User: Which sequence fits this backbone?
């Protein structure tokens, strides 16, 4: 198959997915499965072991060669921390936006002069953390945990220390690192520093 054939196949598949979303309000379960397990680095065998569905069935589902019953879909969705609705990502029916009001978000005094507001994103295991660092304050100890971290500085200047190196992040700067590497933060500036962290693990319970 040449490059042109591959492009036509991918275009046809993409168009088919869009048409199905428009018609039925959800993406094909096999495509969702492939996307989620690829994002998490899971093999079909690993998914099979957790949901009790055969590898051959899951492979056929990914290829669009078979459909899946609701009870089986619920077992498959559970592997990725979803219910059936969130797994399919209802885009047109039944699912509106979820709003988290300020007073409902957990607050945490992480260290003297360091305030965290922690939002647990439902069905994902992700956390979004709004932070404020008073001048001269920080999280001095080395932090290590599973997953990856993404940081966006929204005000002031924040110093990130990662594996013995220091990085100065100003308003609008972003940082990304493997969370298993020792890291810490400090505001060495003269004004309050604010940042938003995105964690792919539920570190703060």
Assistant:
């Amino acid at each position: 198959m040449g490059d042109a054939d591959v492009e036509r196949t991918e275009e046809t598949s993409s168009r088919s997915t869009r048409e199905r979303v428009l018609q039925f309000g959800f993406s094909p379960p096999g495509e969702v499965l492939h996307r989620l397990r690829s994002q998490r680095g899971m093999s079909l065998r690993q998914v099979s072991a957790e949901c009790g569905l055969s590898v051959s069935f899951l492979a056929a589902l990914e290829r669009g060669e078979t459909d899946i019953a609701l009870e089986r879909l619920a077992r498959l969705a559970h592997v990725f921390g979803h219910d059936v609705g969130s797994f399919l990502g209802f885009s047109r029916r039944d699912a509106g936006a979820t709003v988290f009001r300020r007073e409902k978000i957990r607050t945490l005094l992480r260290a003297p002069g360091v305030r965290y507001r922690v939002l647990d994103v439902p069905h994902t295991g992700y956390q979004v953390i709004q932070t404020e660092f008073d001048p001269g304050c920080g999280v001095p100890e080395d932090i290590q945990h599973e997953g990856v971290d993404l940081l966006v500085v929204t005000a002031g200047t924040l110093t990130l220390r990662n594996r013995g190196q220091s990085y100065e992040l100003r308003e609008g700067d972003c940082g990304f690192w493997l969370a298993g590497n020792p890291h810490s933060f400090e505001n060495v500036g003269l004004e309050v520093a604010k940042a938003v962290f995105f964690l792919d693990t539920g570190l703060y319970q």
Residues 1-14, 91-95 have pLDDT under 50 and may be disordered.
